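Bumping my old thread because nobody answered last time. Still need a sequence for this structure:
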C-alpha cells in the first residue's frame, strides 16, 4: 500500500459510514450526526514527523530539500525555543501562536526568521509557542506534518526542553547528525531513550558532500557501532545524504543529481514505513471500530461485506517493489488543477469583451439594431448572457425593433400569408445559432483558443514538461482531434487523468472534513473543489451550451 492507496482507503471507510448514516439516524432520531466521532478521526489523521538534532546539523535544510523549497530559514545560529510545524496550504504563509491569550497572527514565510531565530527573538522574548507554516507541497498534501524542533544540547537549555517535550507527538523521529561531528552526547541519549521505548528512528547523516568516500565509510561504520551498542539499535535506519546537493538538484530539475544526493531513498523509505505503520495501527483500529458500530446497528450486511473486502485488500501481503524516483518527488509544488479550463478561459475573455462592446453598440447604432432585428435577436442562451451585463435602458432601446419584426411575422402567419407549416413555422422565427452574432463570435474565439492551446501542448511535450494546460471534458475531444502525434495525445491524457484525480481527492477531503465537523482543517483548494470538479466535467458555467444544427 502506498500513500495514495492509504488515503483512498480512508475515503472508502468514510463512504461506508455515509451509506449507513440514514439508517443510524432513523434508529436514533435525535442524533443527526451518528458517526461524527469516526469521521473526525479519519479527517484528523496525519503523519507527524519530528525533525530533531543538535543545531547546525542542517535540519531545516533537510526539510527544505524534502519539500523542494528554500522558504524555511536556515543558518548557523541556534533557533529559539519555538516549535515550527510545516503542513499543507494552498498558498504559502506562516501563522504565529502565542503562549499568552493573544490571537494568532499571520506573517509572510519570508519574515519567519524575525520570530524564530535567536538573533531576532533572543530567549523567545516574544513568547511564541508555535510557528505554523503552510506550503503547497505534494508530500504535505498527502497528510505529512513536519515538525522542526530547536537544537538539542544548545547553550539555550529551553531549546532542549522544548524539543524533548514535543517528541511524544511523533509518528516517526528523524534525527539529523552530520559528517563534521557525528552523534553528540545529547543525540546518543535521545537514541537510547527511543530505543528503550521501542520506537523507530531514522538517522540522517547529513553533509556527505563535505567528505570523501573513505571518510564517509569510516564515519558510517562509527555511527553504526555507536547505535548497535544502545537499546533498540536495529530499529534505527541510517541514511547518508547531502541536503545541500538535493536542494541544488531540485532547483535545476536534475534527476541524476537528486538520486546521488541520497534524498529520494530516505524520503521513500520514510514514506513506506509510515504508511505500513499506519496500515497496521490506524486503519486496523478504524476498521474494527466501524465494524462494531455497524454490527450494533443491524441491517448493514452490504456495508459489512464492503468493509471486509476493503480490509482484505488493504492488508493483503505485497511484493516489495522498488519505489520510483522523480526529480520533483513528493516535494513537488502543488498547483490546484481545474481552477479554469484553458480553452473556456480564453473564449470567455473574448466573448465577454465583445458583449461589453455590443450592448453599447445597440444603444447608439441604428444599423446594429436593424441587424439584430433581421437575425431575429439572439439565441436563448446568449439573450440571458446579454441581460446579465446590459441595463434595462439598454435593453429597452436595443430590442423593440427585434420584437416588432417578430410580431409582424406572427401577424402574417395568423392572416394566412405565406406557406404555413404548423409548429415549424413558429420555430423558424426563433434565431438559430448560425444567425446569433454571439454564437458566431463564440465559435471564432473557440477556434483561436483551440489553435493556441494545441501549440502550447506541443511545446510542453517537446520540452519534457510534466504539467499540461487543464482542458474540460467538453473541449478535450476538440483538442485531441487537432493533435496528430499519438505520443503527445497520450501524454496529454495522462496529465488530464492525474489532474482529475487530484480534484476528486480534494473533493473527498472536503467532504470528510465536513462530515467530521472539522471545517477549520479545510484548505482553500479543498473549499473550492466542488467548483473545480464541475469545471472539469462541463467547462465554465456561463460559456458552454448545447450546440444545435447550423
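Sorry it took so long. Here it is:
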Amino acid at each position: 500500500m502506498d500513500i495514495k492507496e492509504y488515503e483512498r482507503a480512508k475515503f472508502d471507510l468514510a463512504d461506508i459510514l455515509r451509506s449507513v448514516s440514514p439508517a443510524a439516524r432513523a434508529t436514533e432520531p435525535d442524533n443527526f450526526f451518528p458517526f461524527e466521532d469516526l469521521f473526525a478521526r479519519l479527517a484528523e489523521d496525519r503523519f507527524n514527523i519530528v525533525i530533531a538534532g543538535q543545531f547546525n546539523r542542517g535540519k531545516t535544510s533537510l526539510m527544505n530539500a524534502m519539500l523542494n523549497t528554500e522558504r524555511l530559514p536556515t543558518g548557523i545560529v541556534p533557533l529559539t525555543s519555538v516549535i515550527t510545524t510545516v503542513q499543507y496550504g494552498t498558498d504559502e504563509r506562516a501563522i504565529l501562536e502565542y503562549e499568552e491569550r493573544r490571537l494568532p497572527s499571520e506573517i509572510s514565510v519570508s519574515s519567519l526568521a524575525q520570530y524564530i531565530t535567536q538573533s531576532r527573538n533572543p530567549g523567545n522574548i516574544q513568547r511564541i509557542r508555535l510557528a505554523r507554516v503552510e506550503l503547497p507541497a505534494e508530500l504535505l498534501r498527502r497528510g505529512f506534518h513536519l515538525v522542526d524542533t530547536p537544537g538539542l544540547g544548545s547553550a539555550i537549555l529551553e531549546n532542549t526542553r522544548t524539543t524533548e517535550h514535543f517528541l511524544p507527538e511523533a509518528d516517526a523521529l528523524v534525527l539529523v547528525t552530520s559528517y563534521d561531528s557525528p552523534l553528540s552526547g545529547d543525540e546518543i541519549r535521545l537514541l537510547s531513550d527511543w530505543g528503550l521505548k521501542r520506537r523507530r528512528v531514522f538517522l540522517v547523516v547529513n553533509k556527505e558532500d563535505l567528505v570523501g568516500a573513505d571518510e564517509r565509510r569510516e564515519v558510517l561504520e562509527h555511527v553504526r557501532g555507536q547505535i548497535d551498542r544502545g537499546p533498540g539499535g536495529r530499529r534505527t535506519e541510517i541514511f547518508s545524504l547531502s541536503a545541500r546537493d538535493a536542494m541544488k538538484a531540485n532547483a535545476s530539475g536534475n534527476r541524476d543529481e537528486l538520486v546521488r544526493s541520497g534524498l529520494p531513498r530516505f524520503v521513500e523509505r520514510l514514506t513506506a514505513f509510515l504508511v505500513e505503520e499506519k496500515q497496521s495501527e490506524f486503519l486496523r483500529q478504524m476498521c474494527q471500530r466501524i465494524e462494531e458500530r455497524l454490527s450494533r446497528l443491524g441491517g448493514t450486511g452490504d456495508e459489512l461485506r464492503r468493509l471486509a473486502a476493503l480490509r482484505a485488500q488493504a492488508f493483503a501481503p505485497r511484493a516489495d517493489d522498488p519505489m520510483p524516483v522523480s526529480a520533483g518527488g513528493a516535494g513537488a509544488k502543488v498547483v490546484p488543477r481545474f481552477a479554469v479550463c484553458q480553452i473556456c478561459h480564453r473564449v470567455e475573455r473574448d466573448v465577454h469583451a465583445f458583449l461589453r462592446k455590443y450592448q453599447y453598440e445597440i444603444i447608439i447604432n441604428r444599423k446594429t439594431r436593424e441587424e439584430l432585428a433581421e437575425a431575429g435577436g439572439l439565441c436563448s442562451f446568449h439573450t440571458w448572457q446579454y441581460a446579465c451585463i446590459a441595463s434595462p435602458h439598454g435593453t429597452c432601446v436595443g430590442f423593440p425593433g427585434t420584437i416588432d419584426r417578430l410580431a409582424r411575422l406572427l401577424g402574417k402567419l395568423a392572416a394566412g400569408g405565406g406557406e404555413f407549416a404548423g409548429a415549424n413555422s413558429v420555430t423558424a422565427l426563433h434565431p438559430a445559432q448560425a444567425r446569433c452574432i454571439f454564437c458566431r463570435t463564440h465559435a471564432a474565439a473557440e477556434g483561436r483558443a483551440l489553435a493556441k492551446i494545441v501549440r502550447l501542448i506541443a511545446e510542453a511535450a517537446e520540452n519534457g514538461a510534466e504539467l499540461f494546460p487543464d482542458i474540460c471534458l467538453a473541449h478535450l475531444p476538440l483538442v485531441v482531434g487537432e493533435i496528430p502525434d499519438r505520443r503527445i495525445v497520450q501524454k496529454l491524457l495522462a496529465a488530464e487523468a492525474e489532474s482529475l484525480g487530484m480534484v476528486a481527492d480534494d473533493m473527498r477531503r472536503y467532504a470528510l472534513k465536513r462530515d467530521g465537523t472539522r471545517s477549520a482543517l479545510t484548505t482553500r483548494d479543498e473549499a473550492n473543489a466542488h467548483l473545480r470538479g464541475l469545471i472539469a466535467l462541463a467547462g465554465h458555467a456561463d460559456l458552454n451550451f448545447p450546440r444545435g444544427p447550423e
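The first helix runs from residue 3 to 27. Let me know if any region looks off to you.
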